[in-house]
Amino acid sequence: MIPLKRRKVSLAVNQQNDSCTFPHVSIFILERKMGTSRRAFLTRLGRSKGFLIKESYSSSITHVVSENNSGDEVQAWLDNQTGRDTSSSGHLLDIRWFTESMEAGHPVIVQDRHILKVSPKPNGDPTAMLMKSYACQRRMPLKHHNSFLTEALEILAQNAEYNDNEGRSVAFRRAASVLKALPCRVRSMEDLRCLPCLGDHSQRVIKEILEDGSSREVESTRQSEQYQAMKALTGIFGVGVRTADRWIREGLRSPDDLIRTGQQLNRAQQAGVQYYDDLQKPVTKVEADVISDIVEKAVHAVLPGAEIQLMGGFRRGKEVGHDVDFLITHPEEGKEEGLMPKITNWLEEQGLLLYQKTTRNSYLEKMDGPARASSNMDRFERCFSIFKLQKSAVSSKSNSTASAEDVGTGRESERPGEHHAEASGWRAVRVDLVVSPYCQFAFATLGWTGSKLFERELRRWAGQEKHMSLSSHALYDRKQNLYLRAKTEEEIFAYLGLEFIPPSERNA
Question: Phi and psi dihedrals of 115, rounded to 5?
Fold first, then answer.
C-alpha cells in the first residue's frame, strides 16, 4: 500500500472569520516561487496574530502578498487563474508589507515601497497579447521569429550551467522561451511590455542587441577560454560539468589533452574520447530513421508485439539532434521485464554496439513515486549506448531503397583516438534506449519528449498550481492522496488543467 501523507490541518473558514481581529483585510499569500512549506508557515503566523488569511484567491481578497515575483508575474498568475482581467482588484504587495504588519501586530498602511508595480496594459492595441507565465501553457514552434535574441540568451544560460548556477540558467531559458512564443519579431523594448519571465539581466541583453546588433557580454562569453573549454569537455560522452571543471583547474582544455596526459577515464569517457569527432556532429533525421529501423528489428526479434517510439527532439519535429532516444513497451503488462539485456545482446551479436551501459528498472511506486518530491530523473530500465551506423545504410535510406541487410557492420575495434570518420564507412551515434511498463507509457512519453524547460515547467505547474507531483512514471494528486492513471498525453494535460500542446510546439 502507498502510505498516506499527513494531511495539513487548517481552520474552517467560518472559524477563521470569527477569530479575526482585522476582518476588513482579506489576505491571499501567493505560493508561486515561495513554496508550500513557507506559505503554510506564513499562513499560521498571520492567523495567530488575528489576520484573515484565505487559502484561495477570490474577488473578496483585498491584499495579495508575494515573494520574489514581479508585479507583472503576479498579475499574469491572477489573470490565468480567474480567466479575466483582475488588474483593478486589490493590492499586489511585496512580502515586506506582510512582515512589517506581523511585527506591528496590525495591518500597516500600504506605502509605495510595498506595492508591486504592474506595467500598464495598452488600450485598443490589437497586437497586444496576454502571455501566460508557464512555458507549458505556451506554444513554441521549432521555427520562430526571434532566434537572434534566443540564441544569445541560451549562450548565457549554458554558461550559467557551466558555473553551477542553475537559477540563473533557468531564468535565461525562461526568457528565451517567452520570445519563442511571440507571433512576430521583436523590434523594440516596447514590444516586450507586459511579458512575464523577462528579468532585468535578460532585458539588458535584449536591449543591447536591438540597439547595437550584438551583446558585449554574450560575445565575451562565447569567446572566453573557460566557456570554450567547458563546451569541449562536457561534449565528451560520460563527462559532466563537475568533472570538466576539475579537469580545467588541472590545466586540461580538450579531449586531446586527456589523451596526451594519460588521464584516467572510465569506460563511458574512454568511448566519448575515442568517438569524440563523430559524436560532435549533428545526427540527421535520415540517420535517426535508419537507427529506428535497427531498433525495431532488434526489439521485435526478441519480443514480438512490442511498441517502439522515437522520442526527444525528433518527436518534436527537429531535423537534426545530438542523439537518438527510443521508448519501448509492450501492451501486455509485465512482458517488458528483462527486455533490455535481450535487445543489447541481439545488437552486440550484429556488431552494432560500440559501447553500452544498461541500468535496471529501480522504480518502486510506494518508495520512489511522485508522492515524494518530483525529479527530472526517472528510474526506468535503460541503455546508454553508442551505435555503429553504416553510411551505406544512410545513403540507401535517403534514396528510399534501404534494406534490412544494410544495417550490418563489421566488428573492428579501435583504441582511443584512432577512429576517423572520414576514412571509415561508418560513424558513431549516441542512442538511448528506455523500457517502460505499459501503465506508465503515457507519462514516459511525455517526460522523454522534451524540451528540457517544457518538462521542468510541467512539473512546476503540477506542484505549484495543482498540488500534484508529476514524473515520467505517474501523476500523484496530493490533495486526494491518489495516483491518477492515464493512457495518453492528452489525459495528463487534462488532469493538469492545461490545454494540450502537441510535441511540435514544446520547443521551450
Answer: -80, 130
Catalytic site residues? 323, 325, 432
Predicted TM-score (pTM) of this structure: 0.73
Helix (H) or strand (E) holding 35: none
- All 3 cell numbers of residue 60? 473578496
Yes or no: say if 225 and 251 are a contact pair by the CB < 8 Å rule: no
Distance CA 253, CA 52 (A): 59
The three cell numbers of residue 362 are 529501480
pLDDT band at 191 (very low <50, low <70, confident <90, very high): very high
> pLDDT tens digit string along 139-180?
999 999 999 999 999 999 999 999 999 999 999 999 999 999
Give percent of the chain above pLDDT 70.
85
Question: What average pLDDT is seen over the chain?
Answer: 87
Give me 123's grid cell. Answer: 488600450
From residue 418, give the alpha-carbon distance in Å to each of 269, 277, 312, 427, 478. Answer: 15, 11, 30, 13, 54
* Secondary structure letter of residue 113 according to DSSP: G
Query: Exposed, middle or buried by CB within 10 Å (0-12, 13-18, 19+), for 208?
Result: middle
Q: Where are the beta strands (DSSP E) in 85-236?
A: 91-94
Percent of the chain with pLDDT over 90: 69
Could you tell me the three cell numbers for 350? 550484429
What is the spatial order of strands in the sheet that 63-66 belongs to?
52-54, 26-29, 63-66, 91-94
The closest of 242, 221, 259, 287 to 428, measured between CA atoms, is: 287
Q: Which of 78, 35, 85 is nearest to 56 (CA)?
A: 78
CB-based contacts of 300, cutoff 8 Å, min separation 6? 306
What are 496's three cell numbers?
A: 493538469
Instruction: Transcribe 400-445 into DSSP letters.
Output: T---GGGG--------TT---GGGSSEEEEEEEEEE--GGGHHHHH
Cβ(394)–Cβ(288) under 8 Å?
Answer: no
> Which one-letter amino acid corresponds to residue 249?
R
Q: Please, are residues 62 and 90 in contact by the beta-carbon 8 Å criterion?
A: yes
In 1-118, alpha helices (H): 13-18, 36-48, 71-82, 95-104
Nearest C-alpha neighbor of 302 from the set 333, 272, 340: 340
The answer on pLDDT for 128 being more than 80 is no
Contact assessment for residue 114 and residue 94, using Cβ atoms and an 8 Å cutoff: yes
Nearest to 164 by CA among 223, 257, 244, 219: 244
Helix, strand or coil, per DSSP, at residue 470: strand
C-alpha cell at 445: 512519453
